[in-house]
Structure prediction request, 433 residues.
Amino acid sequence: MQQTLLTVNIEQLYSIYQQHRSVQTDTRKLKTNDIFFALKGDNFNGNEFAAKALEMGAAFAVVDEAAYYTIPEKMMLVADALEALQQLALWHRQQLHIPILAITGTNGKTTTKELVNAALSAGFKTYATVGNLNNHIGVPLTILSILPDVEIAVIEMGANHQQEIASYCRIALPTHGIITNIGKAHLEGFGSEEGVKKAKGELYDFLRANNGTVFVCNDYGYLVEMLKSIPHIITYGSKKADYIGESIADTAFLAVALRGSSQVGFIQTQLVGAYNFPNVMAAVAVASHFKVPENKIAPAIAAYTPSNNRSQVIQQDNNTIIMDAYNANPSSMRAAIENFAGILAPNKVLLLGAMMELGADSVKEHQALVNLLERNHWDAVVLVGGDFKKINHPYIFMEDATAAGKWLKQQQFQNTYILIKGSRSTGMERVLA
Ligand SMILES: CC(=O)N[C@H]1[C@@H](OP(=O)(O)OP(=O)(O)OC[C@H]2O[C@@H](n3ccc(=O)[nH]c3=O)[C@H](O)[C@@H]2O)O[C@H](CO)[C@@H](O)[C@@H]1O[C@H](C)C(=O)N[C@@H](C)C(=O)N[C@H](CCC(=O)N[C@@H](CCC[C@@H](N)C(=O)O)C(=O)O)C(=O)O
Ligand SMILES: Nc1ncnc2c1ncn2[C@@H]1O[C@H](COP(=O)(O)OP(=O)(O)OP(=O)(O)O)[C@@H](O)[C@H]1O
Ligand SMILES: C[C@@H](N)C(=O)N[C@H](C)C(=O)O
Prediction:
């Protein structure tokens, strides 16, 4: 059926959305009455699934190829289904008169988002990004999941190139923002750490131009330098800040003692690593600012347990395994190794997978990690795959995580702390499979 491509009739689409309030881009996850958006990806053309989505019980489908506009009464044909999804999200955002806190940064976005959401939920009806649905599809899907009774929303924004955070801000219209930190990740797309700073700074640019509020870790001079002309600034950190805490991290799990006038008190977290200190403090600052009762903040943060191989602690026989295999980049690797070095434990072993998406800096960054490792004594170090193969080091090298796992089983370590970390695609969690 030949049809002219249409621009989005946003009011009609919004009226359909208001009847169902559930949007899906994947037939494999479809629920009855979802509105299906046919996206194009590397492997499939979502348009091919639109009719099937309706058969499966979708209420409506948005397609962007005329050949698939086969059931006009239940379909809308638009020029670009992804753009339609983003426009619908913006329209919905404009109907929500609530604070929206955007969180970006190199490391700790998901953990900070979860902690902030946990702390805010102790006083408000909240909605937060699920998992790390933080990109050009995930951000609009997150906004469209905010129901009318939500009082505050927390939205994670990821990026691997310039102008990406700016584009998400134009959809989410955040009123508040956090850049967790700036480090080395996705250098392939950002070019350099300076490029990462510029890209993450797009959140501050938006808040600066829109009378927004920034929560910032005052310990990071490079973030403080970026705050010029931000209308409202709330600081947290280990000294000289609106919310001051002390990190107590001599066991695997971080504890934080609040100082100054805060009544939040002492927080025993279930998070490994002193590097989670600013993530916890961000949650304290946000919840306190929004006036969540102070006696409810510490229990809410303490109850949060990480998942999905993000710094999870696993007891196996009498060994303690820190499974941090969700992702890796030079900054988070450095933080994890330095934290591991500081843990008081008799025996320590590291299995580290290669880091991805580092472009021209990749070999240099892998070499820098080896130099860092060499500053400490370890009982064993296994480096796995990728650019670890291209550098000189005194450690064991394995081609992949499966081989590293076989090696680990043969060792029969006792009373040992074992750190497992690597980029997503190295799948270092397979070491324990
Ligand atoms: C487009 C899409 O949603 N793809 C998802 C799909 O992938 P698959 O390979 O199977 O299919 P296609 O992409 O080719 O599919 C085209 C469409 O067809 C649909 N479809 C396919 C088969 C079928 O039987 N029925 C169908 O309806 C399909 O759903 C598509 O709409 O499935 C995968 C498995 O579930 C998904 O992983 C894949 O999702 C992609 C990756 C995606 O972008 N999902 C977002 C919702 C999201 O937010 N994902 C996050 C990861 C975000 C991330 O990596 N963030 C980075 C920084 C951001 C960088 C940004 N520039 C970028 O490039 O993304 C970070 O470091 O944090 C997540 O899933 O966790
Ligand atoms: N504040 C921090 N500083 C350095 N590294 C951190 C920090 N917080 C978390 N990490 C490291 O990053 C890993 C992933 O944490 P998290 O998922 O919260 O980050 P993220 O920025 O959301 O990553 P992604 O965007 O890939 O989901 C942790 O397991 C830990 O190794
Ligand atoms: C998983 C993705 N968000 C990410 O962090 N990528 C880095 C390069 C990784 O694979 O660890």
User: Anything to note?
Assistant: Residues 25-28, 39-44, 46, 49, 131-135, 137-138, 141, 158-160, 164 surround LIQMQMZN (ligand 1) (CB under 6 Å).
